[in-house]
User: Fold this.
Amino acid sequence: MKITILVDNYATQLPSLSKRLLSEWGFAAYIHDYKILYDTGLTGTALINNMKALGIDPNEPDYLVISHRHIDHTGGVRKFLENRTRPITMIAHINLFTKAYAKDEKGNLEDISVDFTENDLKNRGVNLVLIKEPYKLFNDVIVSGQIPRMWGPSHLGAVTDDIPDDMALYIKHPKGLIAITGCGHSGVENIVEYGFQITGLSRLYAMIGGLHFLGLSEDRVRQVVNYLVSKAPDIVVGTHCTGIMGMSALYNAMPKAFRVGGVGLVIEL
Ligand SMILES: [Fe+2]
Ligand SMILES: [Fe+2]
Assistant:
């Protein structure tokens, strides 16, 4: 199985240099085997540039799965659709069009909502599927739907609501659960435990994506890292909002399993 990081805050991999990849605040990944694009980054500029540079035709994906409505995950949707000529199925949470805000240091509200309407999507040939419950895309691939927050705290940062729309992508692999997350707002423990619950798996094979350690206290970082260590995953890839402190804590705790993300990173599973 092959997953490529298409958008990330970080340009840390060789293809960034050799293939002139662009990075920007946000996240997007392509799950080749199932033709699923998960998120689109902030502007679409990095997404389209990097897809083309890495030889992934924007027409190739059959599915677009949105992790949550924040603009650093949805801002590339319009440009992605403009670069396609065939319809696509897009799966998102029922709150996709609910306004979203983040507070700056002075307490002012910044709009971080999606920049398209349901009609814009329809006009571009999107079959929009809005969900709240787990949604099976393939026998071994499930979009989480709304993730219960019953196993640990969520990771909310500067936003003004608790982002119930934060959804993970779960893949059942012979070696265990693969959990892919955009911003990890639901909290690492909740994302993994719900993945176990709805897939019936009990082993974590890989955790990939934005793990949202940004803004967490050192104690909370330690808690999350200890939780992940206790699950003994083979692979942890921290991207986007994992942040430098989160990445160094994960690396120190699991030097064999941990990898820094970055645009152009190919993860073979
Ligand atoms: Fe977010
Ligand atoms: Fe994010």
Summary: The pocket of fe (ii) ion (ligand 1) is lined by residues 68, 70, 183, 185 (CB under 6 Å). DSSP finds eight helices and 16 strands in the chain. The mean pLDDT is 97. The helical segments are 14-18, 45-53, 71-74, 77-82, 118-123, 188-199, 218-231, 243-253.
